[in-house]
Amino acid sequence: MDQLLSSFKIAIPDGVFIKDPETSVLGKNIITQGMELIYDMGFDGFTFKKLGTNIGSNESSIYRYFENKHKFLLYLSSWYWAWIEYNLVMETHSLSDPKEKIFQAVIVLTRKVSNDSSSTHINLILLHKIMICEFSKSFLTKSVDQENEQGLFIAYKRVHSRLQDFIKESNPDYTFSASLANTILSGALQQFYYKNHFPSLTDCSDIIEPSDYYTNLIHKTLFNEF
Length: 226
What we know:
Blueprint: H1 2-6, H2 25-45, H3 48-55, H4 59-63, H5 69-92, H6 98-110, H7 124-134, H8 144-149, H9 154-170, H10 177-197, H11 210-223
């Protein structure tokens, strides 16, 4: 396991990009500036033309890396979930108690994000904010089944699989492990969104964090506690 962690690299499915943006200064700049534009104007208002103007490059240069802005969003979401998976592995691999594992997993998935100096061109705080607002747009499309078959959502599905395994391990008799894992996984982002935009739809606030809610849910659902 230690060897796996030491060699871990954020892996993005090949079908998401045409040319890996990690391989050039321009590619990394496209990611950095593209994230800032999406955060500032929203994904619907974001275009490669605007991005090209922002980075001082031709729009055509961006198309050498990404087929369209949808694939760009898929890149960001794949990067985010691969990074979440890395944190899940890092923070649970030394735990032997299944109960400790599931609660630590909930913390990883629902806590506020801080920047990691090892990823200089990826602003993790900004990426998390983008995922809160825009992640659902990466799969609420007519092409979702085809892209799923191509493995373009593999990072998200791997995180779900790990979380489901933790649930099964902590309570083998619980029938709905896949559904509960998805409730936590997708709901963590939604609770942040509701907290910011529809506060009447959630109990989360400046005092109650999403991690508090999901920790309580796990206690009651899997262990009949509280």
